[in-house]
Write a structure and sequence with these properties.
The protein has 281 residues and is of the alpha+beta class. Helix content is 35%, strand content 25%. A hairpin with a 2-residue loop joins β1 and β2. α1 crosses α5 and α2 crosses α4.
Length: 281
């Protein structure tokens, strides 16, 4: 298979998650032990196992890959992919490209008059993993937002929404992922792109992986320092619920329009979600 930049980022992310969650004596699994797990996996071909041989050498290659210092060979990437798929850290959809092509994201950026990449504070400040939690009718919604750079001036977004009736008070990323893996009763995944206009307006165009349902989010506030390069730790996002297919706009009379103006602010407030940055322990 072709290991494009988005696929490599997902492989790196899932490999780091596996190491964090498959702990040894309460600590993150050593890289040579992760290498041994890969070499011992049923899904990894015996021919590769014999060729690789040393778990120490493979472990160092995994460490460098996770740190973003080096990309493994295709043979090693194939083994990592097979192992993570066997362990249910990867699915077929994770190995595909995001639905929206990168060229479309660049055209949107050009349409909004995006300045040169060095002038875009969101490029670094809004990259990372963010979490929003909301109670809805006795159930919890956990929305994980992963923003990562693509190429020279694009920002890719991956959103995962979990629904569960269980409750957890942890905000540790590894512990939260373990909780959601067991407790989540419904999960939705979306891919998209983040675009920033020259004056700092941030818009996300996103689409559901399974049904193609599209949506547009707007970052209405964040705690970046003006003109600074510090990462944002909190942001408020207008995240509307998609309108069902077949919906139409109904003209309102003068009296109906006046009555409808009252609940709008409250309705909008329900669509504004607070996301906080997730830091690995």
């Amino acid at each position: 298979m072709e290991y494009t930049d988005p696929v490599l980022r997902r492989l790196r992310d899932r490999l780091i998650r596996y190491r964090s969650e498959a702990r040894t004596n309460g600590r993150k699994r050593p890289w040579h032990r992760v290498a041994m797990d890969i070499l011992d996996a049923e899904s990894v071909s015996p021919a590769y196992n014999e060729k690789e041989g040393s778990s120490e050498i493979l472990g160092e290659a995994l460490r460098r890959f996770a740190a973003g210092l080096q990309t493994p060979t295709v043979e090693r990437l194939d083994a990592i992919t097979a192992f993570l798929t066997e362990q249910h850290y990867l699915s077929k959809t994770d190995l595909g490209e995001a639905q929206a092509p990168l060229d479309a994201a660049r055209q949107l950026a050009a349409f909004f008059g995006e300045a040169a990449p060095r002038h875009l504070p969101a490029r670094d400040a809004l990259c990372g993993q963010f979490l929003a939690v909301r109670t809805d009718g006795g159930r919890k919604k956990y929305v994980l937002l992963d923003v990562s750079p693509v190429g020279n001036n694009a920002l890719q977004v991956e959103e995962t929404e979990h629904n569960t009736s269980a409750v957890t008070h942890t905000r540790n990323p590894a512990e939260l992922r373990r909780f959601l893996k067991v407790a989540s009763t419904a999960m939705e995944k979306r891919d998209g792109w983040m675009i920033e206009a020259p004056r700092g307006q941030v818009i996300i165009f996103i689409r559901d992986r399974l049904n193609g349902e599209a949506n547009v989010y707007t970052v209405v506030a964040d705690d970046r320092e003006a003109g600074g390069a510090n990462a944002a730790h909190n942001m408020h996002m207008l995240r509307p619920v998609p309108i069902a297919g077949g919906a139409r706009i109904v003209p309102l009379g003068r009296q109906e329009s006046a009555e409808a103006e009252t609940p709008v602010p409250g309705f909008l407030s329900q669509m504004i979600w607070h996301f906080s940055r997730q830091e690995e322990a």
